[in-house]
UniProtKB/TrEMBL annotation:
GO terms for cellular component: plasma membrane. It holds the Pfam family 7tm_4. The keyword Manganese does not apply. It comes from Dipodomys ordii (Ord's kangaroo rat). This is Olfactory receptor 56A4-like. Keywords: G-protein coupled receptor, Membrane, Olfaction, Receptor, Sensory transduction, Transducer, Transmembrane, Transmembrane helix. Residues 44-294 form the G-protein coupled receptors family 1 profile domain.
Length: 313
């Protein structure tokens, strides 16, 4: 009986990632916009990080938090997109077991780290607008350091069981109908019951992302209430402009994530290639647009970039 059970599944040396199964011939064309977005994301984030690092006037808590967001964006991009492009350009569809579960961990943990960073940034804007006199004593470098450690530890520890649970499953197949190793795409290949695996990801994902979103909404509710009470001419526009960039970034992040969730829930009515495409774009669009939005809308960052360009001339 044991021998019969052991032969009912096979442990393969690696998985195969089959991107866009219904549109294999389109992959070379798709690689062009993906490559451009990837280069834009990496270049914009590196420029932003260098600007904040080299310009002493930007050595402030708000810009340290923006640096953390850029680092998270870059790691997410590097964990996903090079493998996707390798698949498109060279047909290298295989990915090792360990590499697959590492990619899964990075995607789950760094996604929630980004959400937590947005929450901390919302609190930063709340203190700046609602308690401006207390801002220097509350939002300090030590606060940013503690918030960064909290962000990494909380999300890293709570999402770690997701790839661990998946790695303990017995697999009957190795063909993943996706470009990346998402938990559901991989665990679906298992011969075992994956109910607990899926339930844990659902509960942890919505708990972390949901709590961050609620706190962001509360912060902006307080900000809006205070701003509407300001009667000085031009004060409302000035107050809103200080958190406008942050609000736009949250909008990018939330919209792409919401569309991705909806398409996965309604996957029976939507072609399977659509969620795959949205999965990739979610790792490209926010990282590419985040530093550009801050660079365009923030006078201090634009000035810092100009100062660096002058030094290079």
């Amino acid at each position: 009986m044991d021998a019969e059970n052991n032969s009912s599944y096979i442990q393969y040396p690696d998985f195969l990632l089959i991107c866009f199964p219904n549109y294999q011939s389109w992959q070379h064309w798709l690689s062009l916009p993906f490559s451009l977005l990837f280069l834009l994301a990496m270049g914009a984030n590196i420029t932003l990080l260098l600007t904040i690092c080299l310009d002493n006037s930007l050595h402030q808590p708000m810009y340290y938090l923006l640096s953390l967001l850029s680092l998270l964006d870059m790691v997410l991009c590097l964990a996903v997109i090079p493998k996707v492009l390798d698949n498109f350009w060279f047909g290298n569809k295989s990915i090792g077991f360990s590499a697959c579960f590492l990619q899964m961990f990075i995607m789950n943990s760094f996604l929630t780290m980004e959400s937590c960073t947005f929450m901390v940034m919302a609190y930063d804007r709340y203190v700046a607008i609602c308690h401006p006199l207390r801002y220097p004593s509350i939002i300090t470098d030590q606060f940013v350091a503690r918030a960064s450690v909290f962000t990494v530890v909380r999300n890293g520890l709570l999402t770690l069981p997701i790839p661990i649970l998946s790695s303990k499953l017995r697999y009957c197949a190795r063909i993943i109908t996706n470009c990346i190793c998402t938990n559901l795409s991989v665990s679906r290949l298992s011969c075992d019951d994956i109910t607990f695996n899926r339930l844990y990801q659902f509960v942890i994902g919505w708990t972390l992302l949901g709590s961050d979103f609620v706190l962001i909404v509360i912060s902006y509710s307080f900000i809006l209430r205070v701003v509407l009470r300001i009667k000085a001419e031009g004060a409302v526009a000035k107050a809103l402009s200080t958190c406008g960039s942050h609000f736009i970034l949250i909008l990018f992040f939330s919209t792409v994530l919401l569309v991705l969730v909806i398409t996965n829930l309604a996957r029976e009515r939507i072609p399977p290639d659509v969620p795959i495409l949205l999965n990739i774009l979610h790792h490209l669009i926010p990282p590419a647009l985040n530093p550009i939005v801050y660079g365009v809308r923030t006078k201090e960052i634009k000035q810092g970039i100009q100062n660096i360009l002058r030094r290079l001339q």
